[in-house]
Amino acid sequence: MRKQNKNERITRQMQQMCSEMEPKESKRQKKARQIIKIKIEKNQESKRNIEPNLEEKVDRMTREIEELRDVVKNLRRIEL
């Protein structure tokens, strides 16, 4: 039991030493990471807002093309 406790204590100490050795992120790096995350989120939101507008434009253009085809058909009939 004592040996197990000692081993656990040594393991915790080693983990703590390893975590202290890892380079820590500076405040500037943290702030930069937050700003980048916010920019990515805003970019994704704007993409979501653009997509419905594109669908509407495609639908409208499709209707206009169909109308123009009808006009061309009518003009051909008139010529004949």
The percentage helix is: over 70%
Poorly predicted parts: none
Fraction of residues in β-strands: under 5%
Termini separation comes to: 105 Å
Number of helices: 2
The biggest sheet amounts to: none
CA-atom Rg in angstroms: 33 Å
Helix and strand content put the structural class at mainly alpha
SSE order:
HH
Shape: rod-shaped
Q: How many beta strands in the DSSP annotation?
A: 0
Q: How confident is the prediction overall: mean pLDDT?
A: 84
Structure characterization notes:
The protein has 80 residues and is mainly alpha-helical. The chain has a domain at 54-80. The chain contains 2 helices and no strands. The protein has helices at residues 2-21, 27-79. The chain is rod-shaped and about 105 Å long. The model has no long low-confidence stretch (mean pLDDT 84).
Record keyword descriptors for this entry.
about 80 residues, coiled coil, about 0% strand, mainly alpha
Short recap of the structure:
The chain is 91% helix and 0% strand.
Q: Which secondary structure elements does this structure contain, and how are they paired or packed?
A:
Layout: H1 2-21, H2 27-79
Coiled coil: 51-78
Biased composition (Basic and acidic residues): 1-11
Keywords: Coiled coil
